[in-house]
Amino acid sequence: MATTKHDKRLSVLDGGWGAQMGPDLMFRQFEEGYDEGPDNIALICTHQSWGHLRNIVGEKPVAGCLTWTYRQLMRAARDLALVWEGYGIKRGDTLVAFLPSCAEWALGFWVAAILDLTFVPLDPATLVVSSPGEQEYPLELLKTSIVLVSNLRDAYNFDELYPDLTKAVRVKVVCHERVDSFFRGWINLEPPETYRFRVSGAGDKPYRPIPKERVVADDRVAVVLFTQESPKHPPKGCPLTVQNIRTALVNQYILPQQRYLVTCQSSSSAALEAVLVAWKRGAAIVFPGALFSAQTTLSATEIYRCTRLVCTPPQLEELIKHPSRPQRDLSTLESLSVHGGLVSAKLLAQGQHALQTQWVSSSLTVTEGFGALGWRSVSPEDRTLDSVGTVMLGSLVKVCSVDSRNIRVLGRGQEGRLHVGGDAMIQGYLGGESKEHFYRDSDGNRWFVTNYLATMDNNGLVRLTTELKVRLAISLNLATLLHDRLRLYTLLMLVQNS
Questions:
Q1: Are 17 and 153 in contact (CB under 8 A)?
Q2: Across 33-42, 217-226, 375-384, which has the greatest mean pLDDT?
Q3: What's the CA dihedral at 484, 487, 492, 494 to 10 degrees?
Q4: What are residue 360's phi and psi, to 5 degrees?
Q5: What is the DSSP letter of 187?
Q6: Distance (Å, rounded) from C-alpha 152 to C-alpha 381?
Q7: Which are the contacts of 364, defined by CB distance < 8 A and separation ≥ 6?
Q8: pLDDT tens column, 368-416
Q9: How far is it, in rounded angstroms, from Cα 320 to Cα 175?
Q10: All domains of the chain in start order, with CATH
Q11: For residue 189, which of 155, 221, 161 has the smallest C-alpha distance?
């Protein structure tokens, strides 16, 4: 991405160079975290027992709930990768996980990194539908070879929703319910082959299989997230490449001692960002439950001495008003990061006061990429609650006129549509959907047109003002209301004149 100087009177900023091009795949991101300390805690799942998946982990658990070190997670992922290689899984295949936040979700992500697969986390609730085809994702556009689901009901629903993938999928796994007999080709996560393929004396650290033919690693799609404008619109896939992820992570600096408590949905960009940052730096991820509960979140914060909380605005509201909060010792909690739409400064201030964090921030949450906006300073004094930050390394940002036929950059302080670009953003949706949201400028930089209206001040701080689709919905509703009233008035006039 070229670095360009812009007129400071205009609402446009260039963050400069981000992550350098390199041969490293996604495996290297997790390997860096492993190297920070193999015996550091990598994952805590408070809702899963210490003995869960013990046959795969192969070591003694270290706590009452499921708690894995980097050494345990690496070894388990390596052994499972060897099993799935035996089933014919190859580099470039896709692993789809219809799972909540859990150990199996984490394990699947690590296996995908080791085997250089594309990881696709999906909302498990979308498998609970009233009629086939109602919530279908365009998985036929991906080389789906592995599917993970929670229970037999979800397994059955997957087969009904995606009949065309039956022959293509090589491994279908039910994670949280025992498959007593051969059920439509579904198996459990701990097949007998786990032991047959386990390599004795191979050491703790797994290798990454080196393919005979290498491609440019930065162009490999590491993760696909899905976004949906509304229930009436079909889901759109966002293919995040290794370069997208490496660029987003280059701006994140944390210590290995940090513990991230993540309550966002497992299929969200907020959850993905949190786990990637933590596992690249050797920190721990804490999942307090498959579903959000204010009580279990507050309890997990206290018991496991969490330092960072990543949540959504509705979740924060529940945490603030929960009756058990004042009795909890939340002294270890240093920061609060709130993701999802427009977040009011008032709510952030209330959250900071209630949870007693040193600093709090909201983020530009778009599935098309993350890390484009943020804070370059870790000092709370340099942050404002009403802003989502400024441009980060490897990214571009500008505020433009709303008229798509005549896009022009606005002056500082003027409200317009927010465009973000650079190496952290995807190049387009899966299958070429909604191409109007993406374009390249005369310098060759690629841009994504967000659904947010925003302003940029003289210090380069961006403030989100309106979610455009919300404003459009209000306008449409108002137009419908006016139309109905006009129609009613016309009918009344006809009655009076008859």
A1: no
A2: 33-42
A3: -170
A4: -140, 145
A5: E
A6: 51
A7: 372, 373, 388, 389, 418, 420, 450, 452, 462, 464
A8: 988 889 987 666 666 789 999 999 998 999 999 998 777 899 999 999 9
A9: 34
A10: 1-18+393-471 (2.30.38.10), 26-241 (3.40.50.980)
A11: 155
Per-residue DSSP letter, 235: P
Answer whether 0.85 is exceeded by the pTM.
yes
Tokens 């427009």 map to which residue? 342
82 burial via Cβ count (<10 Å: 0-12, 13-18, 19+): buried
Question: For residue 412, which amino acid is it?
Answer: R
Structural contact between residues 258 and 281, judged by C-beta atoms closer than 8 angstroms: yes
- The beta strand positions in 352-459, using DSSP E, are 359-363, 373-374, 390-391, 395-400, 416-422, 438-440, 446-456
- pLDDT over 50 (residue 195): no
Angle (nearest 5°) at CA 289 between 286 and 294? 95
3-state secondary structure of 409: strand
Question: What pLDDT digit, counting tens, does each position of 50-65 carry?
Answer: 888 888 886 665 668 9
